[in-house]
């Protein structure tokens, strides 16, 4: 067991503060940010349950829970800036500690309090309920998912009011992390907690929606990532947009090759020119890995395949596969 200690340079403090500010701005559902992550312990125990990423005062945080909160809290375009480890340390663990305190004090948010905070959030962002729900739908989230986040926030607000930590009328959506009372309370709560982080489990490579083909990587100079879609397929358009967004930078830096074949037109949608048809060997790969001719299909280096809707839920798994294929 090794305690992680911080460097006390002003440069690192400034960098940390900048990252915290970014998290507050972009992580619209994050409860709060604490600056005392260096109090946590990192533990490497191979025999520990691989689904557990942290233990907080004896209560376990699962990788599924981390993945869920991360998806709800961090906008997809900012996942490169805020890693899951950052999020676990700076938000989810402090949140768990405060929720434990709330439970000890028999504090629980009511439905009315949750609805009030949620409504305030929607109004302050200049949205209608329909617009907000459409935004959530684009991230494969539902309004009930967000209510869970605001239920947590409302309970912590009540805890802070009870402890005279902050002055609020239940309308505050973000906590002032510069406030001395706030920071002292959070610091003390974490300092008096036993927190263990199982770092090796945070981004563990687990296949969920992809399957191993049990084939070796195709005989290629570099891995080729393929998608097959049709114009008539209802989910193919959004699946194709996400696929292209995820591979485009890897194509640019030469890490992989990628092809997005439209089976209707025979065109590779990742190139500017219009192809006259799909090469026979590319058709053969489609038939091999989608024998029932289902679309959309993603074939990664001939070693992994995904049949069906390709959504933001598959992003982490897909990126982990790409890292494996290119040897990172």
Short account of what is shown:
With 328 residues, the chain is an alpha+beta fold. The protein is 44% helix and 12% strand.
Explain this structure.
- The protein has 328 residues and is α+β, with helices and mostly antiparallel strands.
- The protein has two domains: 2-201, Triger factor/SurA peptide-binding fold; 211-326, Glutaredoxin, CATH 3.40.30.
- Helix content is 44%, strand content 12%.
- The chain is built from ten helices and eleven strands.
- It has helices at 10-26, 63-73, 84-104, 111-124, 129-138, 143-162, 180-191, 236-252, 280-289, 315-326, and strands at residues 2-3, 41-42, 52-56, 59-62, 195-197, 211-212, 224-229, 257-262, 267-268, 297-300, 304-307.
- Strands 6-11-10-7-8-9 form a six-stranded mixed beta sheet, sandwiched between helices.
- The radius of gyration is 23 Å and the shape is elongated.
CATH architecture descriptor of the largest domain: Orthogonal Bundle
Number of helices: 10
SSE succession: EHEEEHHHHHHEEEHEEHEEH
Shape: elongated
Write the layout of secondary structure elements.
Elements: E1 2-3, H1 10-26, E2 41-42, E3 52-56, E4 59-62, H2 63-73, H3 84-104, H4 111-124, H5 129-138, H6 143-162, H7 180-191, E5 195-197, E6 211-212, E7 224-229, H8 236-252, E8 257-262, E9 267-268, H9 280-289, E10 297-300, E11 304-307, H10 315-326
Parallel strand pairs: 2-5, 7-8
Antiparallel strand pairs: 1-2, 3-4, 3-5, 6-11, 7-10, 8-9, 10-11
Helix pairs in contact: 2-3, 3-6, 4-6
């Amino acid at each position: 067991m090794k305690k992680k200690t911080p460097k006390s340079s002003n440069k690192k403090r400034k960098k940390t503060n900048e990252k915290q500010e970014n998290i507050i701005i972009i992580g619209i559902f994050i409860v709060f940010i604490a600056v005392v992550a260096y109090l946590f312990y990192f533990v490497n125990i191979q025999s520990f349950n691989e689904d557990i990423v942290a233990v907080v005062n004896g209560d376990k945080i699962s990788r599924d829970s981390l993945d869920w909160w991360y998806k709800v809290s961090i906008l997809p375009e900012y996942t490169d800036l805020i890693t899951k480890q950052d999020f676990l340390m700076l938000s989810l663990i402090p949140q768990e500690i405060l929720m434990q305190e709330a439970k000890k004090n028999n504090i629980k948010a009511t439905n009315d309090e949750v609805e009030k905070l949620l409504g305030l959030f929607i109004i302050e962002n200049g949205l209608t309920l329909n617009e907000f729900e459409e935004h959530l739908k684009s991230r494969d989230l539902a309004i009930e998912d967000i209510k869970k986040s605001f239920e947590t926030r409302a309970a912590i607000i009540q805890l802070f009011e009870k402890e005279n930590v902050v002055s609020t009328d239940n309308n505050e959506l973000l906590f002032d992390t510069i406030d001395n009372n706030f920071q002292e309370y959070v610091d003390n709560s974490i300092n008096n907690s036993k927190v263990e982080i199982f770092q090796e489990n945070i981004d563990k490579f687990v296949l969920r929606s992809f399957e191993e083909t049990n084939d070796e990587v195709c005989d290629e100079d570099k891995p080729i990532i393929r998608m097959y879609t049709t114009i008539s397929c209802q989910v193919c358009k959004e699946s194709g947009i996400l696929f292209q967004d995820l591979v485009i930078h890897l194509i640019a830096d030469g890490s992989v090759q990628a092809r997005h074949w439209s089976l209707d037109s025979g065109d590779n949608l990742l190139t500017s020119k219009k192809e006259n048809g799909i090469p026979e060997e590319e058709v053969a790969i489609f038939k091999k890995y989608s024998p029932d001719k289902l679309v959309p299909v993603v074939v990664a280096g001939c070693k992994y395949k995904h049949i069906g809707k390709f959504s933001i839920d598959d992003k982490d798994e897909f990126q982990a596969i790409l890292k494996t294929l290119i040897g990172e």
